[in-house]
Description:
By secondary structure, this protein is an alpha/beta fold. 35% of the residues lie in helices and 18% in strands. A hairpin with a 2-residue loop joins β11 and β12. The longest helix has 19 residues, at 38-56. The mean pLDDT is 94. GO terms for molecular function: ATP binding; cysteine-tRNA ligase activity; metal ion binding. InterPro entries: Cys-tRNA-ligase, Cys-tRNA/MSH_ligase, Rossmann-like_a/b/a_fold, tRNA-synt_1_cat_dom.
Amino acid sequence: MIRLYNTKTRTKVDFETLERGKVGMYVCGPTVYNYIHIGNARTFISFDVIRRYLMWRGFDVTFVQNVTDVDDKIIGKSLEEGRSAAEVAAEYTEAFIEDMRAAGVLDPDIRPKATEEIPAMIELIQELIDGGHAYDADGDVYFNVRSFPAYGELSGRNVDEMESGHRELRADGKGVEDRKRDPLDFALWKAAKPGEPAWESPWGMGRPGWHIECSAMSRKYLGLPFDIHGGGADLVFPHHENERAQSEAACGCTFANYWMHGGMLQINSEKMSKSLGNFKLLRDVLKVTDPKVLRFLMLQTHYRSPLDF
């Protein structure tokens, strides 16, 4: 019997798959606006090892990892460099795949790109509106957080005790607080702005919010529920909390049976991140380090624990 730590229950539990001998696994992929750093790589290497272990144990694993190729950060990079968001995303998607292969990470069985799955996202958003869990506000569509009583269970947060307009959620509706029914509501669809990529929808031209992308792609390729949803610990809130809320509100069922999250890679006990400028690019490290040595370093600490580099 395999036992694993489930973030949602905050306990170690027996791992029982939905279908005997098979595992459906979704791990959030990169937002492709830059080369990945070794902090990102730790998450991907950790789940590569977990996947390989399940395969070694005899499971038929279907591993899905998305590419977020439409996002505020990609648009910002495109404006900064004077080229299209599609060009930025294409360059860094290719670079990500190269870096993962160089680090010895297996390709996913399915690697959907957000921009190629817009119809699935629109369909899911419409289901949420029809079910009373989302609303249109002048071309933006927001998820009604309070319509989902279990919101906060994954991350251990109480909605009534949350800071009004939590910074992570506020970022999903910057400058449009007056359109939202509640400061905690987050964007499912964003109305088009000049110079940004946009697609036709029942609510006008626009683009999907970050969270709906993973919900739609995991549902399309694995069905609901599926076995394991994974990612870095920094994704528990708001990304995975929001994913779970909108997915379960739409289907009235469990989204994922097990939630697994990897610990952060740190520099001097501080999280490695592009925003802090304390990162080392994976491709630069691999120029001077054997990938097997890097993988061994990443596995020196339990995958859920922080690791100082």
